[in-house]
Amino acid sequence: MCSSRSTLGFQMERKQGEVDHLERSRPLTDKERVMIQDSWAKVYQNCDDAGVAILVRLFVNFPSSKQYFSQFKHIEDAEELEKSSQLRKHARRVMNAINTLVESLDNSDKVSSVLNAVGKAHAIRHKVDPVYFKILSGVILEVLGEAYPQVMTAEVASAWTNLLAILCCSINAVYEELGWPHLSNSTS
Questions:
Q1: Is residue 110, in this structure, part of any structural domain at all?
Q2: How far is Cα 171 from Cα 121, in angstroms, rounded to an integer?
Q3: Which of 58, 74, 95, 144 could form a disulfide with 47 if both were Cys (CB 3.0 to 4.6 A apart)?
Q4: What residues does the Globin domain cover (predicted)?
Q5: Which domain CATH number covers 62?
């Protein structure tokens, strides 16, 4: 079980409680790995559109998440966000990182390495509160479920939920190892 700490006084915009299920993780089964990889192959065919849809949903539903993006943090309109070349570039990076994880599910060292690098970059360089990984994970599940209902069956969605819980727990562990609360008070 993974526990997560968020910054004191942080108010997260929440629609329902959609990220609570990302608190618990367990190792992926072989069946879950296959389901995740098979479903991701279909999603990744449209990686640009899917990535943009995920980030636009994140920024519209959780506007405080835009604070980390100087290039488009003042854009309020969803259509304008969709057109932002900087948002599109970041969406591609997010989708490529997920793709690397999914392709590497049989290689725990590679998965750990990628998550460690992502966690360190977001903690040290970008100073992103780790709660946003849980929020993003909830948005990913929501968008994929809506955009790919034939692919994201209940069983596949459950496997993805477990993978994203593992991701959140791993990122949180990196943040804790780095002493995250102290990093948030440092200057760049």
A1: yes
A2: 11
A3: 95
A4: 27-176
A5: 1.10.490.10
Q: Rounded to the nearest 5 degrees, what angle is found at the Cα of 54, between the Cα atoms of 51 and 55? A: 90
Res 173 pLDDT > 50: yes
Measuring CA to CA, which residue among 57, 54, 62, 49 is closest to residue 78? 57
Q: Would residue 18 count as lying in a domain?
A: no
pLDDT, one tens digit per residue, over 21-38 is 555 678 999 999 999 999
Is the pLDDT score of 15 beyond 80? no
| Alpha carbons within 13 A on the beta-carbon side of 21 | 16
Burial of 176 (0-12, 13-18, 19+ CB in 10 A): middle
Q: What is the identity of the amino acid at 184?
A: S
Whole-angstrom Cα distance, residue 151 to residue 1? 28
Number of folded domains that form the chain: 1
Tokens of 178: 């780095």
Residue 144 in domain: yes
Asked if the structure places residue 13 within a domain, the reply is no
Q: Structural domain of residue 164, as residue ranges?
A: 28-183
Structure tokens at 60: 């519209």
pLDDT (tens digit, 9 = 90+) per residue, 101-134?
A: 999 999 999 999 999 999 999 999 999 999 999 9
